[in-house]
Specification:
Layout (H helix, E strand, L loop, with lengths): L9 H4 L5 E7 L13 H8 L3 E3 L2 E2 L5 H10 L3 H4 L13 H5 L6 H7 L3 E7 L21 E5 L8 E5 L2 E5 L3 H4 L1 H15 L6 E6 L37 H4 L7 H34 L6 E7 L19 H4 L3 E4 L7 E3 L3 E2 L3 H8 L4 H4 L8 H4 L4 E2 L21 E3 L5 E3 L13 H5 L13 E4 L38 E4 L1
Parallel strand pairs: 1-8, 1-9, 2-11, 3-12, 4-5, 4-8
Antiparallel strand pairs: 2-10, 5-6, 6-7, 9-10, 11-13, 14-15, 16-17
Length: 487
């Protein structure tokens, strides 16, 4: 009898947990068709997976919302109330508490190799926040933008060391830099160890600087004239009701220009998505990788005569895209269940097979089961044909999506019935109800100053103004005390 001994590498034969990629845009809306200038993303993520039609953020502002994504907590728990140091954005208090419990920490401890590139939190890298030397826990490969979204002339913290960038497109355009760093990271990953990669682009945040090759795109487009566009907000908050209606012509022109430039910035993100998916395929990891595409908050352009910004509790500022592809996700499907940004962290940990006791620490809930459950086929414009009744549509329904995924106005409702998108009609279709969530909680604590230059009538009222003084100085006025709502 012969006995043969062999050294067996258990790790080599164990089933590796799926990889995870999170692509996070900045200020990308749903209500104004923010996802439609991205045909590659639609094809490679939405068509290859699931589109969530009711994805909401925890707060309509960057730093609170991003903090919720990282921690899986509502604002009242992580206490990042606005984009300032005094509002706890990347503050010493944040770093000593909530940041230590962010989801990358758990992924890293459980064997994931982690990578980050792009915008982290608005005050990251400031001297009060430890400067570029501070590398948040949980990240093996760190490439964090110092400060808020820009496209040129910025500094990255690369493993805690400053990396300066100028204004040369080939070397410095931030979305492309993130793209290149992501591909380089994927070239280094091991087939035996799962990875998590977060790509946080500046698009489509101000200053809306597109790559030079896209400067002439969308010249014939204008901001969608939704049913809320350039009308007076009746029965709204008194600040919203104070706006000038109709907006001055030059303000409308500015809104249209912002719309075009926002779309242009997203074309580089579309190229990045294509590059990442192609690289995942080339290294043999695409079929074992979940790819999530979403945004930190929405945006408005003329709704209720508010020229531009976010910070409001209306759908245009709190509803964002969410598209997911990955193992077990049926292609070309739609989920209408209510999900939130706080649900991303527990979902990532669930994918990583991290125990329920850890998931219980989050306010959010894992929606992994929604990804692998049968849902409606994705409804594009042509598939909605015949679902509408004969009543006249509201103004929102006077748009359709052409074959390239671009928004166009209907010449008439009757003539364009087969192509016009009717959100109400889509919502009347049969729904597979799982009862995942019945409501969403949105919170915003506001920012304020005592003196508002150019707006003396609003001094010493605890308000803040960030955009368009012509709109009676209140296109983005905010309370200095907490606001929240159940939606």
């Amino acid at each position: 009898m012969f006995v043969i001994f062999a050294n067996i590498d258990v790790g080599a034969i164990a089933v590796k947990p799926p990889n995870i990629v999170l692509i996070l845009t900045d200020d990308q809306d749903v209500a104004l068709f923010g996802q439609y200038p991205m045909p590659k993303t639609k094809q490679l993520i939405a068509d290859a997976g699931m589109t969530f039609t009711n994805m909401f953020v925890s707060s309509p502002l960057c730093c609170p919302s991003r903090s919720s994504i990282l921690t899986g907590q509502f604002v009242h728990n992580h206490m990042v109330t606005n984009n300032s140091q005094s509002g706890n954005c990347s503050s010493a208090s944040w770093q000593s508490s909530a940041e230590k419990k962010a989801f990358p920490v758990y992924l890293q401890v459980n064997g994931y190799k982690t990578f980050f590139a792009g915008k982290y939190l608005n005050e990251y890298g400031s001297p009060q926040a430890g400067g570029v030397a501070h590398v948040p826990p949980g990240w093996d490969d760190w490439n964090g933008l110092v400060g808020n979204s820009v496209y040129y002339n910025y500094t990255l913290s690369v493993q805690g060391q400053a990396e300066s960038h100028g204004d040369n497109y080939q070397q410095d355009y931030l979305t492309d830099v993130i793209h290149r760093k992501a591909v380089n990271f994927l070239n280094s990953v091991s087939s035996r160890k799962p990875f998590f990669m977060m790509l946080s682009t500046p698009a489509c945040h101000q200053p809306f600087t597109s790559a030079p090759q896209f400067l002439q795109n969308f010249t014939d487009r204008r901001a969608p004239r939704t049913k809320h566009f350039n009308i007076h907000g009746k029965d709204k908050h008194w600040l919203v009701e104070k706006t000038i209606t109709p907006m001055p012509n030059d303000t409308v022109e500015l809104v249209d220009d912002f719309f075009r430039n926002r779309w242009r910035t997203l074309l580089s993100v579309d190229d990045m998505v294509e590059g990442v998916v192609n690289k995942l395929k080339a290294i043999g990891e695409l079929n074992n990788t979940y790819i999530f595409f979403t945004s930190d908050n929405g945006y408005h352009l003329g709704q209720f005569s508010l020229p531009y910004d976010k910070r409001q509790f209306y759908d245009f500022d709190i509803q964002v895209p969410l598209m997911v592809r990955g193992p077990g996700v049926k292609p070309n499907t739609t989920c209408q269940e209510l999900v939130m940004s706080v649900d991303l962290a527990p979902t990532f940990l669930n994918i990583g097979k991290i125990g329920q006791s850890t998931l219980d620490n989050f306010d959010g809930m894992t929606f992994l089961n929604l990804l692998t459950t049968s849902h409606l086929p994705y409804l594009d414009a042509k598939e909605i044909e015949g679902t509408s009744n004969n009543s006249s549509p509201d103004v929102t329904d006077s748009y359709f999506i052409d074959e390239q995924g671009f928004v166009k106005e209907c010449s008439s409702w009757d003539a364009a019935r087969a192509l016009c998108v009717s959100w109400r009609a889509a919502k009347r279709t049969a729904r597979h109800t799982i009862g995942f969530r019945e409501s969403v909680l949105i919170e915003y604590f506001g920012e304020h100053v005592n003196d508002i230059p150019g707006c003396p009538s609003y001094e010493n009222q605890g308000l803040s103004v960030s955009v368009d003084l012509k709109a009676k100085c209140i296109s983005a006025c905010l309370f200095s005390f907490p606001l929240s709502c159940w939606h």
